[in-house]
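Tokens in:
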């Protein structure tokens, strides 16, 4: 019974407390409304004076097959869509290129709308471009496993307070990254061509030097061979002259002996009259055991034989009486005036006789006249150009006002309840 009375008393106390709290809130309703309205108005005013932040974006995909084909028309180029696009993304992410874009586009003036003095230009540029981000496609694992029907685009984004400025900067950055990438391939092509032209020049020089050395070596070989031939021919000439001289000396001895024999036999004059008498040719022989022709001492006689000896002794040269000298001298003259040797010695330029130089010259001309039209070539395909965003990403004015309203409303209620609890109870008996 006692417990039941206690529960009823506790219920009545709770009911009284709730009434008290409700009465406190009703009594402080103007305070709650005033504080909440004041804080909300302040939040609204604050949200209007905050500087808005915008987000600009530009998206793009890998280059077209036409651009890849055109780039690969360059000398010794074997690029792929991925390699070209990777180079483009690398340039796009380069802080140096981002600074160059900022400086060349005079964005210091565009971003500095109030024309306030800039103490540190580099710091100003770094701060302005710090929000530039290259974003890869958001691809889920399921999409990776299934593959794509269309290529997902990459994007570059930038945050800033001036929508037009950040949008213009992104477009300039993408354009400069694209042109820088293409320019790199062109420079690489020119470097490859320059290196190859230098190699061709070196190869030509080596071929000419080698041909000249071969010609000089051939000249020396021909000279050595001709020298040997000349010595052999001169030896043959000397032997022929020596043989002729020996024959002449032997003939002198033989004729001298024949003259002596003719004188001892009393045959002084010749006996040619015995051969042609009255138009009848005689063939006289002396028969001594066998038939023999008439000996010279009998036929010519001492006087003619001695004259022949004198002629042989007074002969100064036997050359006219050596038939083979004509052939040997002709051979000697041919060797001494070797036409091939004279041609090789007189040659001033070996290039017309080097077949490899013709090929190198053709390649050189092709490289020097090589021209690939790159004006319509891009390192990417622009999916979406950056346009000035209409809505800022921050601050969120509605959220600020809502939070201010909720917070101020809650705080004002708490304040009213605290004030109500501190107020003395009018029903309590006086002390």
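Residues out:
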């Amino acid at each position: 019974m006692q417990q039941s009375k206690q529960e009823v008393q506790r219920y009545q106390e709770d009911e009284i407390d709730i009434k008290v709290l409700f009465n406190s809130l009703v009594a402080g309703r103007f305070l709650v409304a005033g504080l909440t309205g004041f804080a909300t108005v302040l939040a609204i005013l604050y949200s209007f004076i905050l500087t808005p932040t915008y987000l600009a974006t530009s998206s793009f995909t890998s280059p077209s097959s036409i651009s890849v084909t055109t780039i690969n028309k360059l000398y010794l180029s074997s690029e792929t869509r991925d390699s070209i696009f990777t180079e483009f993304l690398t340039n796009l992410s380069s802080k140096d290129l981002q600074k160059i874009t900022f400086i060349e586009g005079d964005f210091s003036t565009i971003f500095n709308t109030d024309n306030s003095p800039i103490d540190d230009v580099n710091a100003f540029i770094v701060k302005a471009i710090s929000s530039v981000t290259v974003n890869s496609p958001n691809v889920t694992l399921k999409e990776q496993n299934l593959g794509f029907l269309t290529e997902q685009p990459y994007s570059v984004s930038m945050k800033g307070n001036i929508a037009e400025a950040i949008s213009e900067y992104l477009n300039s950055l993408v354009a400069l990254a694209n042109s820088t990438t293409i320019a790199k391939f062109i420079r690489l092509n020119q470097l490859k061509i320059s290196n190859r032209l230098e190699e061709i020049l070196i190869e030509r020089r080596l071929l000419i030097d080698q041909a000249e050395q071969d010609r000089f070596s051939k000249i020396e070989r021909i000279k050595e061979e001709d020298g040997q031939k000349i010595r052999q021919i001169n030896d043959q000439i000397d032997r022929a002259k020596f043989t002729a001289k020996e024959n002449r000396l032997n003939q002198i001895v033989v004729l001298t002996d024949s003259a002596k024999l003719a004188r001892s036999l009393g045959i002084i004059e010749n006996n040619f009259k015995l051969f042609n008498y009255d138009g009848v040719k005689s063939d006289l022989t002396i028969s001594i055991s066998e038939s023999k022709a008439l000996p010279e001492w009998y036929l010519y006689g001492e006087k003619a034989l001695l004259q022949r000896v004198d002629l042989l002794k007074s002969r100064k040269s036997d050359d006219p009486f050596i038939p083979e000298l004509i052939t040997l001298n002709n051979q000697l003259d041919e060797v001494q005036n070797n036409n091939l040797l004279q041609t090789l010695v007189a040659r001033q330029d070996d290039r017309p006789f080097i077949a490899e130089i013709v090929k190198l010259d053709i390649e050189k001309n092709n490289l020097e006249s090589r021209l690939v039209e790159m004006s319509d070539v891009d390192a990417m395909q622009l999916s979406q150009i950056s346009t000035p965003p209409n809505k800022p990403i921050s601050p969120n004015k509605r959220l600020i006002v809502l939070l201010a309203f909720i917070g101020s409303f809650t705080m004002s209620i708490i304040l009213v309840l605290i004030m109500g609890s501190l107020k003395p109870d009018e029903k309590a008996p006086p002390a």
